[in-house]
From TrEMBL:
Residues 22-222 form the Peptidoglycan beta-N-acetylmuramidase NamZ N-terminal domain. It comes from Microbispora amethystogenes. InterPro entries: NamZ, NamZ_C, NamZ_N. This is DUF1343 domain-containing protein. Pfam families: NamZ_C, NamZ_N.
Length: 368
């Protein structure tokens, strides 16, 4: 099997000679193929890393969704750690400036869904770098669910938030470096992307030859990432998205659901997926400790599978089968990138027409 060489691996193999104080933005996914973390790898290569910056879930990945880690020293390198989560604009600028770094380097994995937040930490810090006059380098990594297909609506700028800063489709098909290049038209940072070698857009992560490291606590496997652009939408309704189980986002359900849900979903003939009737009790998260009925998604054909259409279809069947119990939260608007999906669901209208046909990704593409 051919193996992809990440931006980190390429930089370590050909380190820079400058002696500027570097701030490294990373988390557990920032590793070499032998699992050496980025910070000690760059230090050993001669890069003068002086501060580590952690995103949502933290530098070490110990925090659940919606949290960061308290600032502390990194136990591996002894370097100071700054928590960026929840900081934007002037507050984030002040955090970077107080660290005394003279350049920022970003190295962490994305999962291919617009509402996953690491690339927005990247973009927020690119803005700080532009305002502070610091160079910004992105060490590129694969899109684990492939870069050949984009699916779902493009974000309406009126609904921009930390779960979507830029006008990208919900499943965007881009790498972090490609997103950085596109976003930098507005940001104006002194940006460099160190691209990968050997990555092909049609590849899923298990074709890259690289080790899978959990990007966050509820993203344990590639299977999770495959369904996440669709079932992640359940975080905007009163159903369990599988947090608190060993199959988050593959198991979904609700206390009010019954066996009709699996039958209805299988009856739709959605491409590349089947639904198994199941019951589970989340250990934490929504409906923690409450037995729920629902489905497990089994992806049978990755190339045909349409996660966004699948997620929207799941919401539509929950609303159709259980109209007196199903409810949406305004957070769904931020996840979807506009108010159209919630409006359709609350009115009882079929929202599947809101899913445009999948197509190739658009933007500053670095790879064939």
């Amino acid at each position: 099997m051919d193996r992809v060489r990440t931006g980190l691996e390429r930089l370590v193999a050909a380190p820079r000679t400058g002696r500027e104080r570097v701030g490294l933005v990373t988390n557990p996914t920032g590793v070499l193929p032998d699992l050496t973390p980025a910070a000690p790898a760059l230090l050993a290569a001669g890069t003068r890393v002086t501060t580590l910056f952690g995103p949502e879930h933290g530098l070490r990945g110990t925090a659940q969704a919606g949290g960061g880690e308290a600032a502390a020293a990194d136990p591996v390198t002894g370097l100071p750690v700054a928590d960026t989560y929840g900081r934007t604009g002037a507050e984030l600028d002040a955090l970077v400036a107080a660290s005394g770094v003279e350049a920022l380097v970003f190295d962490m994995a994305d999962v291919g869904a617009r509402f996953y937040t690491y690339v927005w930490t990247m973009c927020d810090l690119m803005g700080s770098a532009a305002r502070l006059g610091l160079p910004f380098t992105v060490l590129d990594r694969p899109n684990p669910i492939g870069g050949a297909v984009a699916e779902g609506p493009v974000l309406d700028p009126a609904f921009a938030s930390f779960v979507g800063r830029a006008a990208l489709p919900l499943r965007h098909g881009l790498t972090p470096g490609e997103i950085a290049l596109s976003a930098n038209r507005a940001t104006g940072a002194a940006l460099e992307v160190v691209p990968m070698e050997g990555w092909r857009r049609e590849w899923h992560f298990d074709r890259t030859g690289l080790p899978w490291v959990m990007p966050s606590a509820n993203m344990p496997t590639l299977d999770t990432a495959l369904v996440y652009p669709g079932t992640g939408l359940l975080e905007g309704v009163n159903a369990a998205e599988g947090r608190g189980t060993t199959r988050p986002f593959e198991l979904v359900g609700a206390p009010y659901a019954d066996g009709r849900l699996a039958a209805a979903l299988n009856g739709l003939g959605l491409p590349g997926v089947r639904f198994r009737d199941t019951s589970f009790t989340p250990a934490y998260g929504r409906h923690a400790g409450v037995p729920v009925r629902g489905v497990q998604l089994h992806v049978t054909d990755r190339a045909a599978f349409r996660p966004v259409l699948t997620g929207v279809s799941l919401l539509h069947e929950l609303r159709t089968l259980y109209p007196d119990d199903f409810a949406c939260d305004p957070f769904l608007d931020l996840l979807w990138g506009s108010g159209s999906l919630r409006a359709h669901l609350e009115a009882g209208r079929d929202p599947r027409g809101l899913c445009p046909p999948p197509g190739p990704p658009e933007g500053d593409l670095l790879y064939d």
